[in-house]
């Protein structure tokens, strides 16, 4: 058979762990894994299968019959790469690669590949490199533990394998230290940028959501920008910011962030913390959901869990955006619209047709205006201009005066506070 030499022929396996993986329907999980693989241009998915995992086949992951059966399938389809949508130990990887004569990548490895393909900014590139190294490091440790066990767990030092692994581990540690230093520098620069932005008197609205939910499409619709919006997972990796005037509303900074995914590798969760700080700093969070997706509820729950684990969102107002209603049939669309209309914090929209956006913009304006905090200010007499501004903006609740100046109790929104700072 003649094949395009530029692309690697891949087969996707979703291991269905009996009894443990029922939270997500196996067929949806398999579909998502195929989309993940499709996100890499150099991979062509030639087939995909859900495989029920046996209870115990530690060294090979699957039973020998299944391995033979799959081997025949891979040979018949000239498969060069097998993607296993789950964790695979280094030992299992080596054994399966040998048995099937293919290269093998597990879910974390695949997601890391995609992230490394997508990272554009210096910070993104450094974070992905660090995540990949941390991942490699855990695989060294596992192999080492395994070697140790083979020798009967005596733990004596100096075996050739162990020395090599120790050396590899040290090399990785050194490189991680170097990368961490470089990253710290980049983060510092970004901090300065954010501080500069905080002086801009606009509230920040952050878009979050499961990958492919439509964040970039909504961002583009609102800002008229041309951020890459594709039916491709993780099209947006680095956060994008844009100041935009909402129709009949305030000027805001809209921020588009990386999409979330179930079972996000822990290495990546940690390394993307910094990027998600943009979300932490937001005045309002818009959680964009693909409401037409069959697994929409599970996706939403996973996004909420990741946000909670990152400490994002507590105390920050959130609106839920039910996107892609144009894809629903009339009956379901009607039902969604009715449900959304009953809840002040849910909005059914289509980021493609623009349906429902007017109500959403109005709600964003209201939410930002409602976010008032109370503060005590002391103004010197020479700051009369500031006092006049506060009275003009109508945020002063109470005022007293002494020989130094004015004591004001103000209730204001983040937007007003920032404007005041800029005076
Ligand atoms: N029919 C329809 N398609 C939509 C809508 N919103 C987004 N899409 C499509 O969904 C796909 C994903 O949209 P993106 O905007 O790239 O999604 P994202 O959430 O930014 O994705 P990540 O970058 O992976 O986080 C694209 O093919 C969009 O055209 C919508 O309201 N209706």
From TrEMBL:
CDD domains: HflX. Its main location: cytoplasm. The keyword Acyltransferase does not apply. The keyword NAD does not apply. GO terms for cellular component: cytoplasm. It comes from the Bacteria. GTP binds at residues 209-216, 234-238, 256-259, 323-326. Keywords: Cytoplasm, GTP-binding, Magnesium, Metal-binding, Nucleotide-binding. InterPro entries: G_HFLX_dom (IPR030394), GTP-bd (IPR006073), GTP-bd_M (IPR032305), GTPase_HflX (IPR016496), GTPase_HflX_N (IPR025121), GTPase_HflX_N_sf (IPR042108), HflX_C (IPR045498), P-loop_NTPase (IPR027417). Monomer. Associates with the 50S ribosomal subunit. GTPase that associates with the 50S ribosomal subunit and may have a role during protein synthesis or ribosome biogenesis. This is GTPase HflX.
